[in-house]
Every structure is written in structure tokens, then in C-alpha cells.
Fold each of these.
Amino acid sequence: MGDPTWEVKEEPGRALSARLREGRTLLVSPHPDDVAYSCGGLLAAVGRPAHATLLTVFTRSAWALPKRLRRAGARVISARRREEELRYCRLRGLTGYQALGFDDASLRGYDDEAEVSSPAEADAVRGAMEDAVADAVRASGADTVLAPAAVGGHIDHLLVHGAVRGAVAGGGALALFYEDLPYAGQHELADVERMLREERGLVPYAGVDISAVVEGKVRGMYVYGSQTDDECVRETLRHARRIASGPRPWARAAGAGCTAHAERVWAAAPAVAR
Ligand SMILES: [Zn+2]
């Protein structure tokens, strides 16, 4: 059996949308906003899923874009983020929301540089966080778990990626990994793909044409007003355009041959392909 490529059969993007619409899905977000940024187009394409829960891990934070909000401190910022999450759940018709309540990197003493260059293994929060994620995955009864691939190496994203890999090992759920945005948009595409294959051991699972719902995705990003600026939206859309610009089977399947925006998800490489 060879290494799967994007040229998988039968419009995998549409099959994935149907799976999320009809099945039981757990959407795992390191921070409030990551799911909206990274796979919000897929969720908009799904419409109203039957059973989808948003699980956000690092929900306490001292960071916000507006300076006034930043000065208000962690309690006020964390409450604002919760409001944004609940609004996003309503917008996307998600049936559940679970906040795990861990302190994000800004509250654990990392600065901007350290949070994208530190190893996850040494972080003191790791054990408790992995246990909490494993419990949540088990309790969700999800048949699909959608989690970060940790593109960009943010320590909170690495921790959640590792926790989900551990939690789904040997279980019945299909684990898929989204490309973390806007981080993925800040690197060369070839570097992103090489990292996902070689460092994470992932292979392409599906590309999703989000051209028809891209405005809805952007609306979802701006729900997170405490964190979203225009530059973040631009980087996200630039990535969506560049991955849509190659020859892709889902564009041909749509009959238009002109997919303008896309998102991708990856899966763990089968042992035989490693
Ligand atoms: Zn994040």
C-alpha cells in the first residue's frame, strides 16, 4: 500500500463534510479561535452538524488584541473569550461547548519567542492536560476527532496535538488534523507539507473546497473580536488560495475547475507507509 496522496477517490472533502454533518464530532481547539481560523470553512460547508462539540483546552489567557482589554487582566479577557466561543457555537450550530480551563502560554510564563520555540515535553502542564483531553475524548463518544496538526510549533498547539494522538491511539474514532492558521500561512507551503509528513508523521486525508462559504468562514473569525485582526484574516485567506490553486480532484468533481479557497486535513500515516 502506497502513501496516500491528495488524489484520493470520491471527493474526500465532500465525504468528510457528510461525515461531520451526520456523525458525532469533537472539535479540539488549543485556544478560543483556532477551530474558527483553521477549519471554519469546513464547518461552514457542513452546515448544521447533528452532534458536534467544541472542546477548548487553554481557555484562561492574559492576551488580547485591544490594549484596553489587555489591561483589564486575565479574568476579564477569559470571560470575553468564553462569550466569543459561545457565539461561534451558535453561529455554526454546534451542539456542545466544553472549556478545559487551563492557563495558556501567556499565563505560564512564555513570551512571544519562547511560546513557538520551546519543547512541549518539558512543560509542567502536560500530564494534567493530557489526562483531561483523554477524558473528554472518551466522554464525547465521537466518531471523528478534529484537532490541530501544530503547524508553527506553538507550545499549546504541540501539547494538544500530542494529547489527542495519545487519546485516540487504539480507539474507534477517526482522528484528523487541521493546518493551524494563521501560522501555516506564515511559512512556505513546501515547508509546511514536509514538516507535517516528516515531523508529525501525517499524510493528506482530504482537501475541502470552501469557495462557496469563505465569507461565512471570515464572519466566524471576526466573532473572535478580542483576537482577530485584518492581517490574520488576510494570512488565512492567502493560505486558502494557494492550496486551492494546484490541480485538485475536488475542483474537477465540482465541475467548475476553479476552486478558489480550500482547507486541508491530515491523518496519521498508516504504519505500513512510514
Ligand atoms: Zn491557538
Amino acid sequence: MKLDYMLDLRKTLNALPKRKLALARLTGKKISVGLETRAGWTGHLEFFVFWCRDCRAFSKDYAHSWPERRYVTCQRCGTNFYFPKLSAVLKEFTETLRFLIRLRFTARRG
Ligand SMILES: [Zn+2]
């Protein structure tokens, strides 16, 4: 693990309320720490602090993949933690339902 990552993680953890960290550790909730950028990036991404059950430590990463499949990766052990965005999951569910209803009516006519 890089030193600059360790220093950034320490700074981020110190800025968060202890109560919020304790809850994240207990429930596995990801704490959004806002948009950040890194050297060589052209834009900003939302970063999260989260508890890794495998190495029993906090980690910090940005959300990877699409909202309905998003995950963060522990910077120590590489374990991925999935936490799909609820609004994206609901949208996907609604679209699937709409498709099935349309399919049913199409099949009746045929
Ligand atoms: Zn880990």
C-alpha cells in the first residue's frame, strides 16, 4: 500500500465522526466522502470509506462500474464490496416488469 494512500485515508477517517465510523463498521454501510480526483484523472469520482471484514480495517475507494452493479475495492486485500444504488435497482426492476407485461400482451394477440 502506498504512503500517500495511507496518509489520505488517515486524514479522511479523522474528519469523520467516530459514531458514523462505528456504524459503518457494524453494518457494512459505505460512507460517501464526496467527489475527489487523482493525479492523471480528467474528472472527479465519488469516494467512499468502508470497513473491510477480511482485513478488519477501514479502506477508501471510489465506486466502480454502473450504479446497479457498483462496488468498492479494499486497498489492502483487494476484496470487492458490492452496494448497488437502490434507485438504479428499482429502475431495472420496473423496466423488467414493463417488458414482461408487454411480452404477455404480445403473446396473447399472436
Ligand atoms: Zn481488506
